[in-house]
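Make up an example, fold above all:
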Amino acid sequence: MTNFSDNFALRGRNTFGLDAEARHWAEFRTAAELRDILLRCREQGLPWYVLSGGSNIILTGNFPGAVIHPAADGIALIGPGLVRAEAAVVWDDLVAWSVERGLGGLENLSLIPGYAGAAPVQNIGAYGAEAKDTIETVEYFDAATLETVRIPKEACAFGYRESVFKGSLKGRAIVTAVEFRLTPEADGKYAYNIGYGDLHDRVMELGGPSLRNIRQAVIAIREAKLPDPAVTGNAGSFFKNPVIPAAQAAELRERYPEMPGYACNGGAAVKVPAAWLIDRAGWKGFRSGTVGVHPKQALVLINLGGATAQEILNLARRIICDVEQKFGVTLSMEVNIL
């Protein structure tokens, strides 16, 4: 029988640094161990929740059941350009591993916090790239059937920060491994992606496009803009970039010609940076008691010390309301709430 750790403190398991406890904590490395954990939850009528890196979550209180944590962290090249990462691989370690071996596709996603197992759930993305661009297969354990399942990327229903794992498989699928189709840089056919934001200029300053230069540039940009969770509690990007109709974007640009935006959905819509909206609304650098908005990146809400989940969510709702009143655009939160 799998051992549970009781009354487990979660403060060190979430990057916001919020105080909370799990009634039970259980780690797994194999499907057999996960099966035992889930069977015990069934027998005892315990709710369960999978917590990996804790970088995209707000804990609103103690969890009355079992918090399940993946622990397998192997990376392997299982075929030409095909990389398998187990769920507990630190995401940036996977990116570094790939770049060091000259395998392209993940370099734009450097320094994103969290585990590899969370990448397909959230369809993480940055600098014009998303996890779905390279994911080939997702392996998960079905909590209903207690069987391991493998599905191709076409069945993952990937969207902007969305996937089937946040939809019909939410609360059922526990990702155990992800396989990525990467492209060898040495074959001369790899198309570098440096057209997003200020990435191009940073890469050119480093000597031009290469996997190493792109990774170095992305890391430098992120470190300059984003706070270190070990120093200042945060969950990275708190809000999604809203996608609005092209006509609405055109109307907003009449009032704000400097508003950035990126055409999507075949030109029918425009993705507007939430950071610009929040900054233009006057929230960047805002501080109130134990919470605030990061002075270098308006997308990031921060714990100034001793903040509660409710204080963070109250600030988020104030920002959402203000942005909606000023621009007619409704922001949505990217973080998960437990």
